[in-house]
Design a protein that fits this description.
Distance between the termini: 37 Å
Largest sheet: 8 strands, mixed
Oligomer: single chain
Radius of gyration: 18 Å
Number of strands: 8
Mean pLDDT: 93
Helix content: 40-55%
Length: 262
């Protein structure tokens, strides 16, 4: 956990989501979240790994009842600083693998938008998913975000020229799967791994989406778009973000699951 503390004590997550590429991810995620909620303010929301509250605080200020769990104390302090006391939100320091503070079948929507970035074994990932499913109501939704493997290989190893370094450090398998360790901060997955993680869980996959699509590949080009061009880019992105032939190459994906009624 020291790696995460050191990283997030110095990293401004809000700044990332306010940049154009980060806005693509945020706006896309919120569009699907809002479709699930359908404006029903009676629905209870849990965000696990809430970070600095970009999603939780926004939803609470919109009138939803939110519980937000975050591991890193610094992030919690930033999140709490955004609240004025009128929001119906409770914040907790806690771990995605142990949500025992919550009873099963409690929430209409559970957001897991960061923890799977930082869990490295199948066992740890499965434990976090099982907990998220457990606390979600039957018929409720679980939205899980992942960092995708091939975008990192293309952008970091090839475009940014770190291939030789990655090979020397044995960070890539023969078939170019990233070998991630805690000190690398982020765990990369492929679609087949996402599918395997949910096998045996009492959920049905509604859809999986590319939350930033090709935006990070274009990088500064997207950052330099004027507002009109950016809105057209968002229209293109939202029209293509569910295409299975593109999802594997996105930087971030969102797996939208529905807990089975029986």
């Amino acid at each position: 956990m020291n790696y995460l503390d050191n990283y997030y004590n110095q990293y401004e997550e809000d700044d990332r989501l306010l940049k154009r590429c980060g806005q693509v991810e945020y706006l896309t995620t919120m569009q699907y979240v809002n479709e699930i909620l359908a404006g029903d303010k009676s629905k209870r929301i849990l965000e696990v790994g809430a970070g600095t509250g970009r999603y939780s605080v926004t939803l609470a200020k919109e009138g939803y009842k939110v519980d937000a769990v975050e591991l890193i104390e610094h992030n919690l302090e930033v999140m709490r600083s955004k609240l004025d006391g009128t929001e119906d939100i409770r914040t907790y320091q806690g771990n995605a693998q142990d949500l025992s503070v919550f009873a099963e079948d409690t929430f209409d929507l559970t957001l897991v938008l960061g923890p799977l970035y930082h869990l490295y074994t199948e066992e740890d990932k499965t434990q976090a998913l099982e907990e998220a499913v457990r606390v979600t109501k039957k018929g409720g939704y679980i939205c899980v975000a992942y960092c995708m493997n091939d975008s990192v290989v293309i952008q970091e190893s090839f475009i940014k020229g770190a291939l030789k370094q990655h090979l020397e450090k044995n960070m890539l398998t023969e078939d170019f799967h990233c070998i991630s360790k805690p000190e690398d901060l982020f765990a990369m997955v492929r679609l087949e791994e996402i599918y395997a993680l949910t096998e045996g869980l009492p959920v049905k996959r509604e859809k999986i989406i590319a939350t930033d699509g090709a935006s990070k590949y274009l990088g500064q080009i997207v950052e330099d778009f004027d507002e009109e061009t950016f809105q057209i880019w968002m229209k293109y992105h939202l029209a293509t973000c569910e295409r299975m032939d593109l999802i594997g190459a996105t930087n971030h994906s969102l797996d939208i699951l529905k807990k089975k009624e029986k």
